[in-house]
């Protein structure tokens, strides 16, 4: 619709009166000027590979639900970022049928469909709607993976479907053009265009976050649809958005195709994911930790704990090691390591480069399979005895004492934990800011075990004389969970 020039002028005056900055683009000098190059030739035929996913499930009436519950599937890792539409149940406490809508795409012409796990999780019935009007009921959920929010479905078409072609997500760069195609609400397909605004994005949705970030609009109902490059290849699976309103604000996320293909292939073959496993608990290398270890850069993954019976233990990896390289790939951050290990073939022997007590070394480890769950042992409490106040030493905002049997019982410290117990944490101290707590146990100081307050003081004095600005402590909680803490000496 053409807007009269007088109305345009009034609107600009109104904007100026409201204190808004108004910029007027220069007008083209001739009628031959064109907009951005069309993507019609690229997108033609792609929309028929994208489908609408419609699900229904029976839920309890609203009066019987948790008042904090949201319409998204329970425990969905993307709950706070992306909720699909649900029909609101009546508030009479009776079970209701609710519906959810999302998108997906044809992975294999025989009838394999990819979508998000949160789109189909908990569904009693799943129907795939195609752009030509066909509706096919899902005969089997071949597998799903909550950690990457992917699911693989099977339908029985009467003739081969048109499937997508996958591209290499590792080749995509910030600034590359992409298309997001979805089929929300059975409208028959939507297409939005934008660029990649970031790669390797971590949104704290799961342990393997490695998202492509795009400003191509991904609105409600588009979850599970494909993100295409300008060759018409899928380089991502649209999964989540950040939005205060539920609509696109230009921050959307897609699972990279290289990650998705690995997961989809495993779901197709095994009906489950089979991830590699090293068996270490790691933490971030902060500036203070790097300085205390003599490292010039804050990179790598600091090993806080090695799991008994794990591949890491068999290879000789130790608590305090900093893993810098895994199978020829740099471990630039702590979160890089779980992704690299998980993507490694089970049973493969790989070389790990690490730093141990300031000395570089290499180890070979055979990657195992990630267990489905880990056993957690309960800590039983012994009966209380007459309290004897222990002698305390004070250092770095802490009051420390020998770990006696009485203190072990009082603070519920596992028998496998040895060291020096912390009985006070000075308010406002660096130790308090770094979440050191009363009842924690100092296991090591500068990667040397300590069993008395005097040993702690001696190690700290040695660090001061060396000229370093901070000291590295290995601290255990009562159950044996370990973490490194670097405290300044000033």
TrEMBL record:
Matching InterPro entries: PDZ, PDZ_sf, Pept_S1C_Do, Peptidase_S1_PA, Peptidase_S1C, TAT_signal
EC number: 3.4.21.107
Source species, domain of life: Bacteria
Annotated ranges, domain PDZ: 279-358, 385-478
GO cellular component assignments: periplasmic space
Spans annotated as Disordered: 58-77
Protein name as it appears in the record: Probable periplasmic serine endoprotease DegP-like
Organism for this UniProt entry: Methyloligella halotolerans
């Amino acid at each position: 619709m053409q807007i009269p020039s007088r109305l345009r002028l009034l609107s600009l005056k109104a904007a100026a009166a409201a204190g808004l900055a108004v910029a007027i683009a220069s007008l083209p000098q001739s009628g031959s000027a064109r907009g951005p190059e069309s993507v019609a030739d690229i997108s033609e035929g792609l929309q028929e590979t994208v489908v609408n996913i419609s699900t229904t499930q029976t839920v309890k009436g609203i009066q019987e639900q948790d008042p904090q519950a949201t319409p998204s599937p329970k425990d969905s890792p993307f709950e706070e970022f992306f909720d699909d539409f649900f029909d609101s149940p009546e508030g009479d406490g009776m079970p209701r049928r609710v519906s959810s809508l999302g998108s997906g795409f044809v992975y294999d012409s025989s009838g394999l469909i990819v979508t998000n796990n949160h789109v189909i999780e908990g569904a009693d019935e799943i129907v795939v709607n195609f752009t030509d009007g066909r509706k096919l009921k899902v005969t089997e959920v071949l597998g799903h993976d909550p950690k990457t929010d992917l699911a693989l479905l099977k339908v029985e078409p009467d003739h081969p479907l048109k499937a997508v072609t996958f591209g290499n997500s590792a080749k995509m760069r910030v600034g590359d053009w992409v298309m997001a195609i979805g089929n929300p609400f059975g409208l028959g397909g939507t297409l939005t265009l934008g660029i990649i605004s970031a790669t390797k994005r971590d949104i704290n949705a799961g342990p393997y976050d490695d998202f492509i970030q795009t400003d191509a609009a991904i609105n409600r109902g588009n979850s599970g649809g494909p993100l295409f490059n300008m060759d018409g290849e899928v380089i991502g699976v649209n999964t989540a958005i950040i939005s205060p309103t539920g609509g696109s604000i230009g921050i959307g996320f897609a699972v990279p195709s290289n990650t998705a293909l690995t997961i989809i292939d495993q779901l197709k073959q095994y009906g489950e994911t089979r991830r590699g496993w090293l068996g270490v608990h790691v933490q971030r290398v902060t500036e203070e930790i790097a300085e205390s270890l003599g490292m010039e850069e804050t990179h790598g993954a600091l090993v806080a704990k090695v799991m008994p019976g794990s591949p890491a233990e068999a290879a000789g990896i130790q608590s305090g090691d900093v893993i810098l390289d895994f199978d020829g790939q740099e471990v630039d951050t702590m979160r890089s390591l779980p992704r690299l290990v998980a993507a490694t073939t089970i049973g493969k022997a790989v070389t790990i480069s690490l730093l141990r007590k300031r000395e570089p070394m290499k180890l070979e480890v055979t990657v195992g399979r990630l267990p489905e769950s880990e056993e957690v042992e309960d800590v039983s409490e012994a009966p209380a005895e007459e309290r004897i106040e222990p002698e305390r030493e004070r250092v770095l905002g802490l009051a420390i004492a020998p770990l006696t049997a009485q203190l072990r019982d009082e603070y519920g410290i596992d028998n496998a934990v040895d060291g020096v117990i912390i009985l006070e944490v000075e308010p406002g101290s660096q130790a308090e800011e770094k979440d050191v707590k009363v009842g924690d146990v100092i296991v090591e100081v500068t990667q040397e075990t300590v069993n008395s307050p005097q040993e702690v003081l001696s190690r700290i004095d040695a660090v001061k004389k060396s000229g370093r600005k901070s000291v590295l402590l290995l601290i255990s909680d009562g159950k044996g969970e370990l973490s490194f803490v670097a405290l300044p000496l000033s």
